[in-house]
């Protein structure tokens, strides 16, 4: 039962997260195309139909790489990760150099090209950080929890290597090493480094309040940095970095599809889900039926996320809507402000559903670790009890914050409550399926030890 619950719950993560990434790819491409073809796609409000179409193409295109085999996926991910890390380092170093070269009271460039006196002061409105320590220091419980829920989404995929256990030469050693290295590289190095650089850059000329109102805050930071430190080539710098982000999104989505497909494949092989999911392709040796099923699901979620990206709190006002191009790319997902504002934001909803799956997967993994090692000789109190206990509680706290945060006024209530509702429905459906499938196969739903 524990195996089924973890596997079934993980589908909220592995089957929805690629859709969130596909939607993000569509949205990002929409913004980039808008820069070069403003008469067709508005650069500030890209066409929802165009973004949804790109999301669908991305879902099937990335799934094809996964279908082609482990070697194709590995080569693709290695190349993408190398490019992305180099681009991340370049941006972050420039952001730090900009701040060091522009102390308090100096003149700095704003996004509109004008020069402003720079001030750094942290307050309730958080216009900037006065120093390096302020960037990483906690500024209240709600701020820490909000950042934690974002961080765990960005760290998704660190466990992807576990799905390759059968292909590893020394899985007991290499899989554990791969997971730990992934966490260190993704979290402590890449994520923390860029997080520091981007926040350290902030000033009165481009404050956190400005970033909140920006369609692409990191992109605008790149424009300012490029115009200041790269001879006025801010727009080109932003586009080049955006291409590397596009590649990174492909790599992340590919890793999740590969992992999710193998989780479903393992369950299909054990007859815990329909058996056709447990079949490998004759030549590629990939769970092809699972991959293409996941491709369709990712395309659907990606289209929803992109098509209703400008719904909810992101709904543009009626004046902005009236100025948008009147073409097929705006034929859906862009009606009146009142209608859009009443709907949940598509990308936020898909992301939250995926995040609940993340918390369920990682939280239950910690619980199973505590249970599985209780009677084993290698049981260690810190590794197999204290650390997993912290992980389980932390994931539960992040999940609770998604509900409590909006109630306290941090964001919209519609998306998290709807995501919780869909997660509950998935759980009930899983329970019904498990009971019926167990009866069909003649399995006991619970195994109870009896005295010898």
In short:
The protein has 452 residues and is an all-alpha fold. Helix content is 67%, strand content 1%. Strand 1 (107-109) and strand 2 (115-117) form a beta hairpin.
* Number of strand elements: 2
| Total number of helices | 16
Q: pLDDT average, as an integer?
A: 85
Helical amount among residues, as a percent range? Answer: 55-70%
Radius of gyration: 23 Å
The percent range for strand residues is under 5%
Order of helices and strands: HHHHEEHHHHHHHHHHHH
Spatial sequence of strands, sheet with the most strands: 1-2
Distance between the termini: 23 Å
Structural class: mainly alpha
Which descriptors apply to this entry?
single chain; 452 residues; mainly alpha; two-stranded antiparallel sheet; 2 strands
Question: How would you characterize the overall build of this protein?
Answer:
With 452 residues, the protein is mainly α. 67% of the residues lie in helices and 1% in strands. The radius of gyration is 23 Å and the shape is globular.
Describe the protein's topology.
Layout lengths: L1 H13 L2 H20 L11 H21 L1 H32 L5 E3 L5 E3 L14 H5 L4 H14 L16 H31 L6 H5 L4 H13 L4 H36 L18 H20 L10 H5 L14 H6 L3 H27 L8 H27 L6 H28 L11
Antiparallel strand pairs: 1-2
Helix pairs in contact: 1-10, 1-14, 1-16, 2-3, 2-10, 2-11, 2-14, 3-4, 3-10, 3-11, 4-7, 4-9, 4-10, 6-15, 9-10, 10-11, 11-14, 14-15, 14-16
């Amino acid at each position: 039962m524990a195996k089924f619950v973890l596997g079934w719950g993980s589908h909220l993560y592995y089957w929805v997260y690629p859709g969130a990434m596909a939607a993000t790819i569509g949205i990002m491409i929409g913004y980039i195309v808008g820069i070069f073809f403003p008469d067709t796609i508005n650069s500030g409000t890209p066409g929802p139909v165009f973004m949804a179409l790109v999301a669908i193409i991305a879902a099937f295109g990335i799934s094809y790489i996964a279908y082609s085999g482990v070697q194709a996926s590995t080569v693709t991910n290695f190349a993408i990760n190398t490019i992305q890390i180099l681009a991340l380092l370049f941006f972050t170093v420039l952001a730090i150099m900009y701040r060091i070269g522009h102390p308090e009271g100096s003149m700095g460039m704003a996004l509109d090209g004008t020069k402003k006196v720079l001030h750094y002061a942290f307050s309730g409105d958080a216009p900037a950080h006065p120093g390096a320590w302020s960037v990483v220091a906690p500024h209240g419980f709600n701020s820490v929890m909000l950042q934690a829920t974002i961080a765990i989404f960005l760290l998704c995929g660190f466990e992807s290597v576990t799905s390759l256990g059968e292909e590893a030469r020394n899985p007991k050693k290499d899989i554990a090493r791969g997971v730990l290295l992934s966490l260190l590289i993704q979290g402590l190095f890449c994520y923390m480094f860029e997080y520091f650089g981007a926040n350290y850059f902030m000033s009165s000329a481009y404050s956190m309040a400005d970033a909140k109102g920006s369609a692409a805050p990191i992109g605008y930071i790149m424009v300012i940095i490029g115009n200041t430190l790269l001879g006025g080539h801010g727009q080109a710098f932003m586009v080049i970095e955006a291409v590397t982000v596009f590649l990174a999104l492909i790599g992340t989505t590919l890793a999740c599809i590969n992992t999710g497909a193998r989780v479903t494949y393992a369950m299909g092989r054990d007859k815990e889900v329909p058996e056709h999911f447990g079949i490998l392709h004759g030549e590629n040796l990939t769970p092809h039926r699972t991959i293409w099923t996941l491709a369709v699901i990712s395309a659907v979620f990606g289209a929803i996320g992109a098509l209703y990206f400008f719904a909810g709190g992101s709904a543009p006002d009626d004046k902005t809507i009236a100025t948008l191009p009147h073409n097929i790319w705006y034929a859906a997902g862009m009606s009146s402000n009142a209608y859009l504002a009443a709907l949940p934001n598509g990308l936020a909803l898909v992301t939250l559903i995926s995040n609940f799956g993340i918390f369920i997967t990682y939280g239950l993994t910690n619980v199973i670790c505590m249970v599985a090692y209780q009677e084993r000789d290698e049981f260690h109190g810190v590794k197999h009890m204290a650390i997993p206990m912290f992980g389980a509680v932390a994931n539960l706290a992040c999940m609770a914050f998604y509900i409590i945060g909006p109630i306290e006024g941090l964001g919209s209530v519609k998306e998290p409550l709807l995501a919780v509702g869909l997660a509950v429905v998935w759980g009930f459906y899983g329970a019904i399926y498990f009971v019926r499938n167990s009866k069909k196969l003649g399995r006991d739903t619970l195994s109870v030890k009896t005295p010898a």
